[in-house]
Write a structure and sequence with these properties.
alpha+beta; Beta-lactamase
Length: about 425
Amino acid sequence: MTRRAGRTRTVLLCTAALLGTALPGGTTWAAPAPAPPACAASPNPTGGEARQIQHIADTARRELGLKAVLVRVTRDGREVVTTALGESMSGVPVTAGMHFRAGSVAIVYMGIAMLQLVDEGKARLDDPVARWLPDAPHADRITLRMLGASTSGLRDYVPDPKFVKALYADPFRQWTPDELVGISASHPLLYEPGTSWSYSHANFVLLGQALEKISGMPLDALIRQRITGPAGLADTVNSATPEIEEPVLHSYDSERGVYEESTYWNPSWTTAPGAVLSTHICDLARSAEAVGTGRLLSPRGFRTQLDPGTVGLGGDTPGCPPRDCFRQLPERHFGYGVIVQNGWIQSNPSFAGYAAIQAYLPSERLAVAVSTTVGPEAPGNNTAQTIAARIAALLAPGNSLSPAAPPPAPRSSSPSGTTPAPSP
């Protein structure tokens, strides 16, 4: 895949997490958390770790040719450092409170919401999709578990040449769920549902629709009531348009062959309507902790989130390229909407010049959040993941966050990028 195409599809790098580390917790969605303080960079941090993290971020910004870098690290929920480096636009310094696309982080939230509904007896993970979405492709053979775990066999519409051509011809186009799922449905299944693993954005478009049917609520309201409200993510919001809440971290991208502003490219194709989120770096770190501690789920739900049956799937799958159907290992795999990697529970969206990662290491109670925007010479991989990996090497050297082979898994946000996983 070309560098351009790789950046357009949002990629979730599937790598491993600790199972059986679920912390006790129940479904707490009914009680919104109190409003958090404003998001701001640490004033003159003096701690050794804080200075080292800032040095890592600044070195990477220059080395990788990045326009902006935002980093927040917390331990036990307490700030280690928050830093904002570079510019949003020429002459406009970046600030910690600037908002950016959250991409595939919304997939994590949809997975949690589904597991909550299952705990409440409103659905079963092994229900066929036909029970809720009778007109969905292969609805009698694909289950809710397969959608959230990405084991349905549905092809990803993001790499489809016709989709990429249409997207690049008009990056402001509003896509409908029927159009997107229809592209996937126009191809044969990659494998018999449930027998292998491959990332497909179509899974999560359908998961969002199923959540609305099961809950009887619009998806944006469901996420707000069950996830962002209880987790105290006051600045993580859905938008029905390409609008981003002010102040905005602007993005630029070269995937169409010229370096251009891409801030308001339409993210409607990246996931289900109602889950097209923006956030800021402080909320992203809070999100990492809320997800990684499992406090929004029952212990059983959290165990399922970390491995819904994906470990051991993938690998040698006839008709599916190894890059797409790669083996899901205990130390590196996709869970129910999350990536688990060497003890970290993470999500790593990338979309139209934006890249980010939220990662939580339960054994160290450590949250790492990074967001970047690229300059014209930046590499095509998720540069936020690169920075997070360097921070992890400093703070938790036994638990690597480095991208591991085989490379990506999901994309969720730019046809080359919200990538196997662009994630918006």
